[in-house]
Amino acid sequence: MVRIVKTEFYKLKRYHILWAGVALMLLSVLLTLFTSMANDGSDWDFAYLTEQVIKNNMSMIFPMCISLIAGYMISREQTDDTLKNILTVPISFKKLLTGKLIVCGVLSIIFGLICSLFTIIAEMIVGFPGFEISLALKAALQITAVNFFLYLAVLPIITLTCRRAGSFLVGVIIAFVYGYGGMFAAGNMTLANLYPITASLGMVGYRSYDTAVNWNIGTCSCSLALAVVISTILILCMKEREATQTKKKAKKVAPKKGW
Fold first, then answer.
1. Residue 112 within a domain
2. 242 CB-near residues (< 8 Å, 6+ apart)
């Protein structure tokens, strides 16, 4: 498994779609800055900026982003016609899929750090009050952790839609709707603790200073753990693929003319 994970990291340098992930992290911050221009009575400071970036990541950006990248990485073995060569090593599709999912988990952390960097740069440009080094470190930790927990939340969708080369795009749409549903789940704390997308916020104590926000870490942990268990079951229940071998067509013998 270690060799599979290392190999997948080597493959990352040829995946240009990773730049799409970086662009989406930048889009999350730019979208937050755009909303700060609205006159809604909110007092913007660095802490509030961080909270809004986390909210936009949760509801609109990251579930779709990581599903797109993970699905693309998995489907490349099929679209590039390299899967049949890998299976003859032999490496099972289950092990290959597990290795790719581990790499995607690491990517979710990296994208979290990139988003944190963009957030700090935006703060330097705009100059919201309340910026401190300690708050910047806390923001980086929260954004990165939420991204990883969001990845765990959408893991069943990625696992379920990765079997066919083009089906991961369906997973991207489902992940977007799934993430946007977190906006509605956040209105009820009982549902927010149970819904995996919003449970990722509870794991980092998002807006826990608000008396109306009551996170139950145990419930949030169980919700995300259930998503991982479901993904594991889906992988274990997958049927192993067989390496396809090209068959040579038999040459047709031209019939003799005449008698």
1. yes
2. 87
Burial (CB < 10 A; 0-12, 13-18, 19+), residue 18, is middle
215 Cβ contact list (under 8 Å, min separation 6): 189, 192, 193, 201, 202, 205, 206, 208
Angle at 212 between CA 53 and CA 228, to 5 degrees: 60
DSSP secondary structure string for all residues of 83-152 = HHHHHTTT--HHHHHHHHHHHHHHHHHHHHHHHHHHHHHHHHHH--S---HHHHHHHHHHHHHHHHHHHH
Residue 36, pLDDT score? 82
- Mean residue pLDDT across the chain: 84
* CA–CA separation, 49 and 64 (whole Å): 22
CA atoms within a 13 Å half-sphere pointing along the CA-CB vector of 122: 26
200-235, pLDDT tens digit by residue? 999 999 988 888 889 999 999 999 999 999 999 998
> Domain for residue 254, yes or no?
no
Angle between helices 93-126 and 133-160 (to 10 degrees): 150
Q: Which domain holds residue 41?
A: 2-236
Examine residue 169 and state whether it is found in any structural domain, yes or no.
yes
Distance CA 186, CA 206 (A): 11
Residue range 81-88: mean pLDDT, rounded: 52
How far is 37 from 189, CA to CA, in rounded Å? 29
pTM of the entire predicted model? 0.85
Residue 117 lies in a domain: yes
Domain count, the chain: 1
The pLDDT value given to residue 250: 47
